[in-house]
Design brief:
The complex is a heterodimer.
Chain A: H1 2-39, E1 42-43, E2 51-52, H2 56-64, H3 66-98, H4 104-117, H5 121-130, H6 136-143, H7 158-168, H8 171-181, H9 186-194, H10 199-227, H11 231-236, H12 250-260, H13 264-292
Antiparallel strand pairs in A: 1-2
Helix pairs in contact in A: 3-7, 3-8, 3-10, 3-12, 4-8, 8-10, 9-10, 10-13, 12-13
Chain B: H1 2-7, H2 9-15, H3 19-47, H4 52-55, H5 69-76, H6 82-113, H7 119-131, H8 135-147, H9 155-162, H10 167-178, H11 182-190, H12 195-206, H13 208-224, H14 227-232, H15 241-252, H16 257-289
The chains are: A mainly alpha, B mainly alpha.
Pfam family, one (chain A): BPD_transp_1
Subcellular location (chain A): Cell membrane
Domain ABC transmembrane type-1 (chain A): 72-287
Chain lengths: 299, 292
Protein backbone atom coordinates (compact mmCIF):
# COMPACT_ATOMS: atom_id res chain seq x y z
CA UNK A 1 0.00 0.00 0.00
CA UNK A 2 2.66 2.41 1.07
CA UNK A 3 4.85 1.37 -1.82
CA UNK A 4 2.17 1.96 -4.44
CA UNK A 5 1.39 5.30 -2.81
CA UNK A 6 5.02 6.29 -3.19
CA UNK A 7 5.23 5.22 -6.81
CA UNK A 8 1.96 7.05 -7.39
CA UNK A 9 3.45 10.25 -6.08
CA UNK A 10 6.67 9.61 -8.01
CA UNK A 11 4.58 9.15 -11.14
CA UNK A 12 2.97 12.51 -10.54
CA UNK A 13 6.36 14.17 -10.03
CA UNK A 14 7.66 12.46 -13.16
CA UNK A 15 4.82 13.83 -15.24
CA UNK A 16 5.54 17.30 -13.86
CA UNK A 17 9.14 16.95 -15.00
CA UNK A 18 7.95 15.63 -18.33
CA UNK A 19 5.30 18.27 -18.89
CA UNK A 20 7.26 20.61 -21.22
CA UNK A 21 8.30 17.70 -23.41
CA UNK A 22 4.83 16.14 -23.34
CA UNK A 23 3.27 19.45 -24.36
CA UNK A 24 5.84 19.69 -27.15
CA UNK A 25 5.35 16.20 -28.49
CA UNK A 26 1.56 16.58 -28.46
CA UNK A 27 1.28 20.11 -29.81
CA UNK A 28 4.32 20.31 -32.06
CA UNK A 29 4.86 16.74 -33.22
CA UNK A 30 1.92 14.34 -32.96
CA UNK A 31 -0.81 16.93 -33.50
CA UNK A 32 0.90 18.46 -36.54
CA UNK A 33 1.60 14.98 -37.95
CA UNK A 34 -2.07 14.08 -37.81
CA UNK A 35 -3.02 17.42 -39.30
CA UNK A 36 -0.53 17.09 -42.13
CA UNK A 37 -1.74 13.54 -42.80
CA UNK A 38 -5.16 15.09 -43.32
CA UNK A 39 -3.80 17.99 -45.39
CA UNK A 40 -2.01 15.57 -47.71
CA UNK A 41 -5.44 14.70 -49.10
CA UNK A 42 -6.55 18.28 -49.54
CA UNK A 43 -5.98 21.38 -51.57
CA UNK A 44 -5.10 24.17 -49.15
CA UNK A 45 -3.66 27.63 -49.76
CA UNK A 46 -3.86 29.04 -46.20
CA UNK A 47 -6.57 31.51 -47.27
CA UNK A 48 -9.64 29.38 -47.96
CA UNK A 49 -10.59 26.21 -46.10
CA UNK A 50 -8.84 22.95 -47.05
CA UNK A 51 -10.70 21.16 -49.86
CA UNK A 52 -10.71 17.34 -49.87
CA UNK A 53 -9.28 15.97 -53.10
CA UNK A 54 -8.54 12.39 -52.08
CA UNK A 55 -5.42 11.03 -53.74
CA UNK A 56 -5.20 14.04 -56.05
CA UNK A 57 -1.93 15.30 -54.65
CA UNK A 58 -0.26 11.93 -54.94
CA UNK A 59 -1.61 11.42 -58.45
CA UNK A 60 -0.24 14.78 -59.43
CA UNK A 61 3.14 14.01 -57.89
CA UNK A 62 3.66 10.86 -59.90
CA UNK A 63 1.92 11.60 -63.16
CA UNK A 64 1.46 15.31 -63.71
CA UNK A 65 4.48 17.00 -62.16
CA UNK A 66 7.78 16.49 -63.96
CA UNK A 67 9.54 18.86 -61.54
CA UNK A 68 8.53 16.63 -58.65
CA UNK A 69 9.99 13.61 -60.41
CA UNK A 70 13.20 15.45 -61.16
CA UNK A 71 13.48 16.51 -57.51
CA UNK A 72 13.14 12.83 -56.58
CA UNK A 73 15.82 11.90 -59.08
CA UNK A 74 18.21 14.65 -57.93
CA UNK A 75 17.75 13.62 -54.29
CA UNK A 76 18.18 9.90 -54.97
CA UNK A 77 21.35 10.49 -57.00
CA UNK A 78 22.64 12.76 -54.26
CA UNK A 79 21.93 10.24 -51.50
CA UNK A 80 23.29 7.31 -53.51
CA UNK A 81 26.55 9.10 -54.29
CA UNK A 82 27.22 11.26 -51.29
CA UNK A 83 26.46 8.81 -48.48
CA UNK A 84 28.79 6.00 -49.64
CA UNK A 85 31.49 8.57 -50.44
CA UNK A 86 31.10 10.07 -47.00
CA UNK A 87 31.35 6.66 -45.33
CA UNK A 88 34.38 5.57 -47.35
CA UNK A 89 36.29 8.81 -46.81
CA UNK A 90 35.45 8.90 -43.09
CA UNK A 91 36.53 5.29 -42.67
CA UNK A 92 39.76 5.83 -44.61
CA UNK A 93 40.72 8.87 -42.56
CA UNK A 94 39.72 7.17 -39.32
CA UNK A 95 42.01 4.25 -40.21
CA UNK A 96 44.87 6.63 -40.98
CA UNK A 97 44.39 8.30 -37.61
CA UNK A 98 43.86 5.16 -35.61
CA UNK A 99 47.34 3.75 -35.09
CA UNK A 100 49.30 5.58 -32.43
CA UNK A 101 49.90 8.64 -34.51
CA UNK A 102 51.39 11.86 -33.16
CA UNK A 103 49.30 15.03 -32.92
CA UNK A 104 46.15 12.88 -32.99
CA UNK A 105 43.97 15.37 -31.13
CA UNK A 106 45.11 18.18 -33.43
CA UNK A 107 44.26 16.22 -36.57
CA UNK A 108 40.97 15.08 -35.14
CA UNK A 109 39.97 18.64 -34.28
CA UNK A 110 40.93 20.05 -37.69
CA UNK A 111 39.10 17.32 -39.60
CA UNK A 112 36.05 17.77 -37.41
CA UNK A 113 35.80 21.55 -37.66
CA UNK A 114 34.24 21.68 -41.17
CA UNK A 115 31.28 19.58 -40.07
CA UNK A 116 30.32 22.38 -37.68
CA UNK A 117 30.49 24.96 -40.46
CA UNK A 118 29.16 22.88 -43.34
CA UNK A 119 25.50 23.74 -42.74
CA UNK A 120 26.07 27.49 -42.61
CA UNK A 121 25.13 30.03 -45.24
CA UNK A 122 28.66 31.46 -45.01
CA UNK A 123 30.21 28.25 -46.33
CA UNK A 124 27.54 27.88 -49.02
CA UNK A 125 28.43 31.42 -50.16
CA UNK A 126 32.08 30.39 -50.25
CA UNK A 127 31.18 27.28 -52.24
CA UNK A 128 29.39 29.40 -54.78
CA UNK A 129 32.63 31.31 -55.34
CA UNK A 130 34.95 28.27 -55.30
CA UNK A 131 32.97 26.49 -58.02
CA UNK A 132 32.00 29.62 -59.91
CA UNK A 133 33.36 30.64 -63.31
CA UNK A 134 36.36 32.52 -61.94
CA UNK A 135 36.48 30.64 -58.66
CA UNK A 136 39.35 28.89 -56.90
CA UNK A 137 38.82 25.53 -58.59
CA UNK A 138 39.01 27.00 -62.08
CA UNK A 139 42.02 29.08 -61.14
CA UNK A 140 43.84 25.97 -59.92
CA UNK A 141 42.81 24.06 -63.06
CA UNK A 142 43.99 27.04 -65.11
CA UNK A 143 47.49 26.50 -63.76
CA UNK A 144 47.42 23.15 -65.54
CA UNK A 145 45.97 24.71 -68.67
CA UNK A 146 42.51 23.21 -68.15
CA UNK A 147 39.61 25.48 -68.98
CA UNK A 148 36.18 24.91 -67.56
CA UNK A 149 33.08 27.06 -67.22
CA UNK A 150 31.22 27.68 -63.98
CA UNK A 151 30.69 24.43 -62.07
CA UNK A 152 27.66 25.71 -60.20
CA UNK A 153 26.29 27.23 -63.38
CA UNK A 154 26.17 24.16 -65.58
CA UNK A 155 23.54 21.47 -65.16
CA UNK A 156 26.00 18.61 -65.53
CA UNK A 157 28.14 19.60 -62.56
CA UNK A 158 26.06 21.72 -60.19
CA UNK A 159 24.87 18.74 -58.14
CA UNK A 160 28.43 17.51 -57.70
CA UNK A 161 29.47 20.76 -56.10
CA UNK A 162 26.86 20.13 -53.42
CA UNK A 163 28.11 16.55 -53.07
CA UNK A 164 31.56 17.96 -52.30
CA UNK A 165 30.04 20.41 -49.81
CA UNK A 166 28.50 17.48 -47.95
CA UNK A 167 31.65 15.39 -48.25
CA UNK A 168 33.71 18.27 -46.87
CA UNK A 169 31.86 17.85 -43.58
CA UNK A 170 32.82 14.19 -43.10
CA UNK A 171 34.48 14.88 -39.74
CA UNK A 172 31.55 13.97 -37.50
CA UNK A 173 31.15 10.58 -39.18
CA UNK A 174 34.91 10.04 -38.96
CA UNK A 175 34.92 10.76 -35.21
CA UNK A 176 32.35 8.02 -34.66
CA UNK A 177 34.38 5.52 -36.70
CA UNK A 178 37.54 6.53 -34.88
CA UNK A 179 35.86 5.96 -31.52
CA UNK A 180 34.86 2.51 -32.76
CA UNK A 181 38.29 1.61 -34.10
CA UNK A 182 39.81 2.29 -30.71
CA UNK A 183 37.56 -0.45 -29.27
CA UNK A 184 38.85 -3.12 -31.66
CA UNK A 185 40.99 -5.41 -29.44
CA UNK A 186 44.65 -5.41 -30.48
CA UNK A 187 44.92 -9.16 -29.68
CA UNK A 188 42.57 -9.98 -32.55
CA UNK A 189 44.84 -8.16 -34.96
CA UNK A 190 47.91 -9.83 -33.55
CA UNK A 191 46.29 -13.25 -33.77
CA UNK A 192 45.31 -12.64 -37.38
CA UNK A 193 48.79 -11.40 -38.17
CA UNK A 194 50.33 -14.50 -36.65
CA UNK A 195 48.02 -16.55 -38.86
CA UNK A 196 49.55 -14.77 -41.83
CA UNK A 197 46.91 -12.17 -42.63
CA UNK A 198 48.26 -8.98 -44.20
CA UNK A 199 46.91 -5.52 -43.43
CA UNK A 200 44.24 -5.64 -46.16
CA UNK A 201 43.06 -9.07 -45.16
CA UNK A 202 43.06 -7.99 -41.49
CA UNK A 203 40.96 -4.95 -42.33
CA UNK A 204 38.31 -6.98 -44.13
CA UNK A 205 38.29 -9.96 -41.76
CA UNK A 206 38.83 -8.33 -38.38
CA UNK A 207 38.24 -4.58 -38.38
CA UNK A 208 35.33 -4.29 -40.79
CA UNK A 209 33.09 -6.91 -39.12
CA UNK A 210 33.68 -5.31 -35.74
CA UNK A 211 32.83 -1.90 -37.19
CA UNK A 212 29.50 -2.95 -38.72
CA UNK A 213 27.40 -1.59 -35.82
CA UNK A 214 28.94 1.83 -36.39
CA UNK A 215 28.67 1.55 -40.17
CA UNK A 216 25.01 0.75 -39.67
CA UNK A 217 24.58 3.73 -37.36
CA UNK A 218 26.39 6.18 -39.65
CA UNK A 219 24.66 4.85 -42.75
CA UNK A 220 21.29 5.38 -41.10
CA UNK A 221 22.04 8.88 -39.80
CA UNK A 222 23.87 10.13 -42.89
CA UNK A 223 21.16 8.86 -45.23
CA UNK A 224 18.37 10.50 -43.25
CA UNK A 225 20.49 13.61 -43.16
CA UNK A 226 21.21 13.54 -46.91
CA UNK A 227 17.53 13.16 -47.78
CA UNK A 228 16.92 16.41 -45.92
CA UNK A 229 19.75 18.50 -47.40
CA UNK A 230 18.55 22.05 -47.92
CA UNK A 231 20.75 25.05 -47.09
CA UNK A 232 23.57 24.21 -49.51
CA UNK A 233 21.22 23.69 -52.43
CA UNK A 234 19.20 26.77 -51.58
CA UNK A 235 22.15 29.15 -51.33
CA UNK A 236 24.19 27.71 -54.20
CA UNK A 237 21.23 27.81 -56.59
CA UNK A 238 19.78 31.03 -55.15
CA UNK A 239 16.62 29.16 -54.13
CA UNK A 240 15.80 28.04 -57.66
CA UNK A 241 17.21 24.51 -57.73
CA UNK A 242 18.79 25.45 -61.03
CA UNK A 243 20.43 25.33 -63.48
CA UNK A 244 17.57 23.48 -65.19
CA UNK A 245 16.49 21.88 -61.91
CA UNK A 246 19.79 20.02 -61.55
CA UNK A 247 19.98 20.94 -57.85
CA UNK A 248 16.25 20.85 -57.16
CA UNK A 249 16.52 18.84 -53.95
CA UNK A 250 13.37 17.28 -52.59
CA UNK A 251 13.25 19.62 -49.62
CA UNK A 252 13.88 22.64 -51.83
CA UNK A 253 10.95 21.71 -54.04
CA UNK A 254 8.83 21.12 -50.94
CA UNK A 255 9.79 24.59 -49.75
CA UNK A 256 8.94 26.13 -53.12
CA UNK A 257 5.57 24.38 -53.34
CA UNK A 258 4.55 24.93 -49.74
CA UNK A 259 5.93 28.30 -48.80
CA UNK A 260 6.43 30.15 -52.06
CA UNK A 261 3.31 28.90 -53.87
CA UNK A 262 1.30 28.17 -50.71
CA UNK A 263 0.29 24.70 -51.83
CA UNK A 264 0.11 23.41 -48.28
CA UNK A 265 -1.76 20.24 -49.20
CA UNK A 266 0.73 19.31 -51.88
CA UNK A 267 3.70 20.07 -49.61
CA UNK A 268 2.15 17.87 -46.90
CA UNK A 269 1.71 15.04 -49.39
CA UNK A 270 5.37 15.47 -50.38
CA UNK A 271 6.43 15.39 -46.72
CA UNK A 272 4.53 12.15 -46.19
CA UNK A 273 6.01 10.59 -49.28
CA UNK A 274 9.42 11.40 -47.78
CA UNK A 275 8.44 9.91 -44.42
CA UNK A 276 7.29 6.73 -46.13
CA UNK A 277 10.50 6.41 -48.12
CA UNK A 278 12.63 7.04 -45.02
CA UNK A 279 10.57 4.62 -42.94
CA UNK A 280 10.93 1.99 -45.67
CA UNK A 281 14.66 2.60 -45.85
CA UNK A 282 15.05 2.45 -42.06
CA UNK A 283 12.91 -0.67 -41.88
CA UNK A 284 14.89 -2.32 -44.68
CA UNK A 285 18.15 -1.42 -42.97
CA UNK A 286 17.00 -2.86 -39.64
CA UNK A 287 15.73 -6.02 -41.34
CA UNK A 288 18.94 -6.68 -43.24
CA UNK A 289 21.01 -5.65 -40.22
CA UNK A 290 20.72 -9.16 -38.82
CA UNK A 291 22.64 -10.45 -41.80
CA UNK A 292 25.50 -8.00 -41.85
CA UNK A 293 25.73 -6.19 -38.53
CA UNK A 294 27.88 -8.06 -36.08
CA UNK A 295 27.56 -7.47 -32.38
CA UNK A 296 30.39 -8.73 -30.22
CA UNK A 297 28.16 -10.30 -27.60
CA UNK A 298 26.41 -12.65 -30.03
CA UNK A 299 27.22 -16.37 -29.82
CA UNK B 1 64.54 -10.94 -38.82
CA UNK B 2 65.30 -13.44 -41.58
CA UNK B 3 64.41 -16.45 -39.46
CA UNK B 4 61.24 -14.72 -38.48
CA UNK B 5 60.28 -14.10 -42.06
CA UNK B 6 60.87 -17.73 -42.93
CA UNK B 7 58.49 -18.96 -40.27
CA UNK B 8 55.90 -16.23 -40.96
CA UNK B 9 56.57 -15.06 -44.49
CA UNK B 10 53.71 -12.64 -44.98
CA UNK B 11 53.94 -11.10 -41.54
CA UNK B 12 57.71 -10.76 -41.81
CA UNK B 13 57.57 -9.09 -45.20
CA UNK B 14 55.15 -6.46 -43.96
CA UNK B 15 57.27 -5.77 -40.96
CA UNK B 16 60.40 -4.95 -42.98
CA UNK B 17 58.90 -1.62 -44.04
CA UNK B 18 60.34 0.93 -41.65
CA UNK B 19 57.84 2.35 -39.14
CA UNK B 20 59.40 5.81 -39.58
CA UNK B 21 58.67 5.77 -43.30
CA UNK B 22 55.07 4.61 -42.87
CA UNK B 23 54.67 7.25 -40.20
CA UNK B 24 55.90 9.95 -42.55
CA UNK B 25 53.70 8.73 -45.39
CA UNK B 26 50.76 8.78 -43.02
CA UNK B 27 51.44 12.33 -41.89
CA UNK B 28 52.02 13.51 -45.45
CA UNK B 29 48.68 12.06 -46.54
CA UNK B 30 46.82 13.57 -43.61
CA UNK B 31 48.38 16.97 -44.12
CA UNK B 32 47.61 16.90 -47.85
CA UNK B 33 43.94 16.18 -47.15
CA UNK B 34 43.82 18.90 -44.51
CA UNK B 35 45.37 21.48 -46.82
CA UNK B 36 42.85 20.75 -49.57
CA UNK B 37 40.00 20.90 -47.04
CA UNK B 38 40.95 23.98 -45.13
CA UNK B 39 42.60 26.05 -47.86
CA UNK B 40 39.34 27.52 -49.20
CA UNK B 41 38.32 28.77 -45.75
CA UNK B 42 41.75 30.21 -45.00
CA UNK B 43 41.76 31.76 -48.47
CA UNK B 44 38.35 33.31 -47.80
CA UNK B 45 39.56 34.86 -44.56
CA UNK B 46 42.68 36.20 -46.29
CA UNK B 47 40.65 37.50 -49.22
CA UNK B 48 38.32 39.36 -46.87
CA UNK B 49 41.28 41.59 -45.91
CA UNK B 50 42.37 42.34 -49.48
CA UNK B 51 41.30 45.40 -51.47
CA UNK B 52 38.33 44.52 -53.66
CA UNK B 53 40.33 44.71 -56.87
CA UNK B 54 42.58 41.93 -55.60
CA UNK B 55 39.96 39.67 -54.03
CA UNK B 56 39.09 37.60 -57.04
CA UNK B 57 42.25 37.30 -59.03
CA UNK B 58 44.59 35.70 -56.59
CA UNK B 59 44.98 32.11 -55.51
CA UNK B 60 47.43 33.07 -52.82
CA UNK B 61 46.89 34.22 -49.28
CA UNK B 62 49.10 37.29 -49.16
CA UNK B 63 48.79 40.84 -50.26
CA UNK B 64 50.77 44.05 -49.85
CA UNK B 65 47.78 46.17 -49.09
CA UNK B 66 45.69 44.64 -46.36
CA UNK B 67 42.59 46.68 -45.61
CA UNK B 68 39.48 46.63 -43.47
CA UNK B 69 37.36 48.19 -46.23
CA UNK B 70 35.47 44.98 -46.97
CA UNK B 71 34.43 44.83 -43.33
CA UNK B 72 33.33 48.46 -43.31
CA UNK B 73 31.34 48.12 -46.52
CA UNK B 74 29.92 44.71 -45.70
CA UNK B 75 28.80 45.67 -42.22
CA UNK B 76 26.46 48.39 -43.47
CA UNK B 77 25.55 46.93 -46.87
CA UNK B 78 22.43 44.89 -47.45
CA UNK B 79 19.10 46.18 -46.33
CA UNK B 80 20.15 46.87 -42.75
CA UNK B 81 23.50 46.68 -41.08
CA UNK B 82 24.97 43.57 -39.62
CA UNK B 83 24.90 44.79 -36.01
CA UNK B 84 21.17 44.19 -36.14
CA UNK B 85 21.54 40.72 -37.66
CA UNK B 86 24.14 39.74 -35.09
CA UNK B 87 22.01 40.94 -32.19
CA UNK B 88 19.03 39.00 -33.57
CA UNK B 89 21.10 35.85 -34.00
CA UNK B 90 22.51 36.19 -30.50
CA UNK B 91 19.04 36.67 -28.99
CA UNK B 92 17.54 33.69 -30.82
CA UNK B 93 20.52 31.49 -30.06
CA UNK B 94 20.56 32.41 -26.36
CA UNK B 95 16.82 31.77 -25.97
CA UNK B 96 17.19 28.46 -27.83
CA UNK B 97 20.02 27.31 -25.58
CA UNK B 98 18.09 28.24 -22.43
CA UNK B 99 15.02 26.45 -23.80
CA UNK B 100 16.83 23.26 -24.70
CA UNK B 101 18.62 23.10 -21.36
CA UNK B 102 15.38 23.63 -19.46
CA UNK B 103 13.17 21.13 -21.27
CA UNK B 104 15.78 18.49 -22.06
CA UNK B 105 17.26 18.30 -18.57
CA UNK B 106 13.86 17.98 -16.87
CA UNK B 107 12.72 15.31 -19.32
CA UNK B 108 16.00 13.44 -19.11
CA UNK B 109 15.91 13.36 -15.31
CA UNK B 110 12.43 11.83 -15.37
CA UNK B 111 13.42 9.16 -17.89
CA UNK B 112 16.71 8.34 -16.20
CA UNK B 113 15.65 8.39 -12.55
CA UNK B 114 11.90 8.23 -11.99
CA UNK B 115 9.35 5.44 -12.29
CA UNK B 116 6.03 6.30 -13.88
CA UNK B 117 3.26 4.68 -15.90
CA UNK B 118 3.85 4.33 -19.67
CA UNK B 119 7.56 5.01 -19.25
CA UNK B 120 8.60 2.51 -21.92
CA UNK B 121 6.01 3.69 -24.40
CA UNK B 122 7.01 7.31 -23.95
CA UNK B 123 10.70 6.52 -24.22
CA UNK B 124 10.00 4.66 -27.45
CA UNK B 125 8.16 7.72 -28.68
CA UNK B 126 11.16 9.88 -27.79
CA UNK B 127 13.51 7.64 -29.78
CA UNK B 128 11.10 7.56 -32.72
CA UNK B 129 11.01 11.35 -32.95
CA UNK B 130 14.80 11.37 -33.31
CA UNK B 131 14.47 9.68 -36.69
CA UNK B 132 11.45 11.61 -37.89
CA UNK B 133 12.19 13.99 -40.77
CA UNK B 134 11.19 17.43 -39.60
CA UNK B 135 9.45 18.17 -42.90
CA UNK B 136 6.44 16.22 -41.84
CA UNK B 137 5.76 18.70 -39.07
CA UNK B 138 7.10 21.71 -40.95
CA UNK B 139 3.96 22.53 -42.93
CA UNK B 140 1.43 22.08 -40.10
CA UNK B 141 3.70 23.91 -37.65
CA UNK B 142 3.91 26.77 -40.11
CA UNK B 143 0.12 26.83 -40.34
CA UNK B 144 -0.18 26.67 -36.56
CA UNK B 145 2.30 29.49 -35.92
CA UNK B 146 0.73 31.49 -38.70
CA UNK B 147 -2.66 31.13 -37.05
CA UNK B 148 -1.26 32.05 -33.65
CA UNK B 149 0.03 35.25 -35.33
CA UNK B 150 3.61 34.29 -34.44
CA UNK B 151 4.95 35.22 -37.87
CA UNK B 152 7.73 37.79 -37.63
CA UNK B 153 8.40 36.98 -34.00
CA UNK B 154 11.09 34.77 -32.51
CA UNK B 155 8.46 32.48 -30.98
CA UNK B 156 8.35 29.85 -33.77
CA UNK B 157 12.13 29.49 -33.52
CA UNK B 158 12.39 29.47 -29.75
CA UNK B 159 9.24 27.95 -28.25
CA UNK B 160 9.84 24.47 -29.73
CA UNK B 161 13.17 24.40 -27.87
CA UNK B 162 11.42 25.13 -24.56
CA UNK B 163 9.12 22.19 -25.30
CA UNK B 164 11.94 19.71 -25.89
CA UNK B 165 11.38 19.15 -29.59
CA UNK B 166 15.03 18.18 -30.15
CA UNK B 167 14.91 14.66 -28.80
CA UNK B 168 18.58 14.02 -29.49
CA UNK B 169 19.61 16.19 -26.57
CA UNK B 170 17.17 14.48 -24.20
CA UNK B 171 18.63 11.14 -25.25
CA UNK B 172 22.15 12.46 -24.69
CA UNK B 173 21.31 13.59 -21.17
CA UNK B 174 19.44 10.38 -20.30
CA UNK B 175 22.50 8.36 -21.33
CA UNK B 176 24.73 10.58 -19.24
CA UNK B 177 22.58 10.66 -16.11
CA UNK B 178 22.33 6.85 -16.21
CA UNK B 179 26.08 6.69 -15.70
CA UNK B 180 25.86 8.62 -12.42
CA UNK B 181 25.65 6.36 -9.34
CA UNK B 182 22.18 5.86 -7.88
CA UNK B 183 23.63 6.00 -4.38
CA UNK B 184 23.86 9.78 -4.79
CA UNK B 185 20.10 10.00 -5.14
CA UNK B 186 19.55 7.73 -2.15
CA UNK B 187 21.90 9.79 -0.01
CA UNK B 188 20.12 12.97 -1.05
CA UNK B 189 16.77 11.34 -0.26
CA UNK B 190 17.97 10.40 3.23
CA UNK B 191 19.11 13.98 3.72
CA UNK B 192 15.55 15.05 2.98
CA UNK B 193 15.87 16.16 -0.62
CA UNK B 194 12.82 15.85 -2.82
CA UNK B 195 13.11 15.11 -6.51
CA UNK B 196 13.36 18.75 -7.44
CA UNK B 197 16.31 19.30 -5.11
CA UNK B 198 17.97 16.05 -6.14
CA UNK B 199 17.62 17.16 -9.72
CA UNK B 200 18.81 20.73 -9.28
CA UNK B 201 21.45 20.27 -6.57
CA UNK B 202 22.87 16.81 -7.21
CA UNK B 203 22.26 15.57 -10.73
CA UNK B 204 22.50 18.78 -12.74
CA UNK B 205 25.86 19.87 -11.33
CA UNK B 206 27.25 16.40 -12.07
CA UNK B 207 25.72 16.37 -15.55
CA UNK B 208 27.65 19.48 -16.57
CA UNK B 209 29.50 17.75 -19.44
CA UNK B 210 26.18 16.68 -20.98
CA UNK B 211 24.71 20.12 -20.38
CA UNK B 212 27.74 21.76 -21.95
CA UNK B 213 27.55 19.50 -25.00
CA UNK B 214 23.85 20.28 -25.39
CA UNK B 215 24.46 24.01 -25.03
CA UNK B 216 27.25 24.00 -27.60
CA UNK B 217 25.39 21.97 -30.20
CA UNK B 218 22.27 24.05 -29.69
CA UNK B 219 24.41 27.11 -30.19
CA UNK B 220 25.87 25.82 -33.44
CA UNK B 221 22.53 24.57 -34.80
CA UNK B 222 20.70 27.80 -34.00
CA UNK B 223 23.50 29.98 -35.29
CA UNK B 224 23.64 28.03 -38.57
CA UNK B 225 19.87 27.65 -38.91
CA UNK B 226 18.62 28.98 -42.21
CA UNK B 227 15.28 27.39 -43.03
CA UNK B 228 13.61 28.40 -39.75
CA UNK B 229 14.39 32.11 -40.00
CA UNK B 230 13.69 31.99 -43.75
CA UNK B 231 10.17 30.75 -43.05
CA UNK B 232 9.25 32.85 -40.08
CA UNK B 233 11.19 36.11 -40.30
CA UNK B 234 10.25 38.25 -43.29
CA UNK B 235 11.03 41.68 -41.89
CA UNK B 236 14.69 42.68 -42.34
CA UNK B 237 14.92 44.12 -38.83
CA UNK B 238 14.34 40.61 -37.46
CA UNK B 239 16.78 38.82 -39.74
CA UNK B 240 19.56 36.61 -38.44
CA UNK B 241 23.12 36.59 -39.75
CA UNK B 242 22.26 33.68 -42.08
CA UNK B 243 19.40 35.61 -43.67
CA UNK B 244 21.49 38.77 -43.82
CA UNK B 245 24.23 36.94 -45.70
CA UNK B 246 21.76 35.31 -48.05
CA UNK B 247 20.06 38.58 -48.93
CA UNK B 248 23.45 40.25 -49.29
CA UNK B 249 24.26 37.67 -51.96
CA UNK B 250 20.93 38.46 -53.63
CA UNK B 251 21.54 42.21 -53.65
CA UNK B 252 25.18 42.30 -54.66
CA UNK B 253 25.50 39.10 -56.64
CA UNK B 254 29.07 38.17 -57.46
CA UNK B 255 30.27 41.77 -57.57
CA UNK B 256 30.98 42.25 -53.89
CA UNK B 257 32.67 39.02 -52.90
CA UNK B 258 35.12 40.95 -50.73
CA UNK B 259 32.41 42.25 -48.42
CA UNK B 260 30.54 38.96 -48.63
CA UNK B 261 33.67 37.12 -47.48
CA UNK B 262 34.19 39.61 -44.70
CA UNK B 263 30.69 39.02 -43.35
CA UNK B 264 30.98 35.26 -43.88
CA UNK B 265 34.18 35.31 -41.85
CA UNK B 266 32.41 37.15 -39.05
CA UNK B 267 29.48 34.73 -39.24
CA UNK B 268 31.83 31.75 -38.83
CA UNK B 269 33.98 33.34 -36.13
CA UNK B 270 31.73 32.48 -33.16
CA UNK B 271 31.52 28.85 -34.27
CA UNK B 272 35.27 28.54 -34.61
CA UNK B 273 35.73 30.40 -31.32
CA UNK B 274 33.45 28.08 -29.38
CA UNK B 275 35.00 25.11 -31.09
CA UNK B 276 38.51 26.13 -30.04
CA UNK B 277 37.29 26.63 -26.49
CA UNK B 278 35.44 23.36 -26.21
CA UNK B 279 36.64 20.95 -28.88
CA UNK B 280 37.18 18.13 -26.41
CA UNK B 281 33.56 18.34 -25.22
CA UNK B 282 32.20 18.54 -28.76
CA UNK B 283 34.27 15.66 -30.11
CA UNK B 284 33.39 13.44 -27.15
CA UNK B 285 29.74 14.35 -27.62
CA UNK B 286 29.90 13.11 -31.20
CA UNK B 287 31.93 10.03 -30.38
CA UNK B 288 29.56 8.85 -27.66
CA UNK B 289 26.14 9.78 -29.00
CA UNK B 290 26.47 10.34 -32.71
CA UNK B 291 25.32 13.94 -32.59
CA UNK B 292 26.35 15.55 -35.82
Amino acid sequence: MKNSERTGREGLTAYLFLSPWLAGILLLTIGPMLYSAYLAFTDYDLLSAPRWIGLGNFRRMFSADPRYLSSVRVTLVYVAVSVPLLLIVSMALALLLNKGIRFLSGYRALFYLPSLMGASVAIAVLWRQIFGGTGLVNQVLGLFGIKHGSWVGSPGTALWTIVTLNLWAFGATMIIFLAGLRQVPAELHEAAAVDGAGPIRRFFSVTLPLMTPLIFFNLLLDTIHAFQAFTGAFVVSRGTGGPTDSTLFYTLYLYQQGFAELKMGYASAMAWALVIVLAAFTGFLFLTARRWVYYGDER
Amino acid sequence: MTTLSISRPLFGRRRTRSPIVTGLVRHALLIAVLVVMLYPVVWMVAASFRPSAEVMNSLGLFSRNYTLDNYKHGWSAGQLNFSRYFLNSIAITALSIAGNLFSCSLTAYAFARLEFPFKRVLFGLLLATMLLPYHVTLVPQYILFNRLAWMNTYLPLVVPKWLGVEAFFIFLMVQFIRTLPRELDDAARIDGCGHWRTFSRIIMPLALPAIGTTALFTFINSWNDFLGPLLYLNRPELWTVSLGLNSFLDVTGESAYGSLFAMSTLALAPIVGFFLGAQKLLIEGVATTGLK
